Amino acid sequence: MGITGPPEESVGSLSDAEVVQRVRDGDRASFEILMRRHNQRIYRAARAILKNESEVEDAMQQAYINAFTHLNQFEERARFSTWLTRIAVNEAIARRQRMRTTESEEMVEQTVTRQPTPEHLAYAGELQRVLEDAVDALPEAYRSVFMLRDIEGLSTNETAEALDLGDEAVKTRLHRARALVRRAVTSRLGETAPGAFQFQAPRCDRVVAFVLERLSVREAV
């Protein structure tokens, strides 16, 4: 079965595991449902490692392609969202390592320098900007845990699985990350964190369209 048609509306009410099974059974169009459900989380996971927005989108796209290609390897004893997040984290790390290997120190500095985007300019409050700057300034080991736990809302266990860490390591890094962030953003952090690092609809559509097009090409070959 092809993947060019839109998923049936009824698929949207199914669980991740049920949608995965439909895709495995040949309803490849339903993979779009999984991408749209998890775009925000996958963006935040990749964004915690790659500060360059273009690289983040590329990592997301490749992560989805990798997940689709290896979907039969997904074991339902784990949550699909955790499995997918782990794939995205691995892709982002590999992409960052390639960047460090192939580019000069100056080029790497230019790549990771924060650039304003339309999404950032549209944020309602200055506090969200301060939060993002504070999170970006965290050491990577703390930033990844903070992004997944406090901003995306994953549990300690889910974060541990996604980052291949122990629960105690997650708790320790989160505690230290919060202490560093509090110095920059005040006690309002808990109320504003979920609004930061939004993956806006046009970008969501762009990632989904790219992945579906790539999968269509792979199917046609």
Provide a concise account of the structure shown.
The chain is mainly α and 221 residues long. Helices cover 69% and strands 0% of the residues.
Largest sheet: none
Measured between the Cα atoms of the first and last residue, the distance is: 14 Å
The tally of domains stands at 2
What radius of gyration results from the CA coordinates?
18 Å
Fill in the CATH topology of the largest domain.
Rna Polymerase Sigma Factor, Chain: A
Oligomer: single chain
Outline type: globular
What proportion of the residues form beta strands (DSSP E)?
under 5%
**How many strands in all?**
0
- The helix content, as a percent range, equals 55-70%
Give unreliable regions as ranges: 1-7, 104-108, 120-124
CATH class descriptor name of the largest domain: Mainly Alpha
State the order of secondary-structure elements, H for helix, E for strand.
HHHHHHHHHHHH
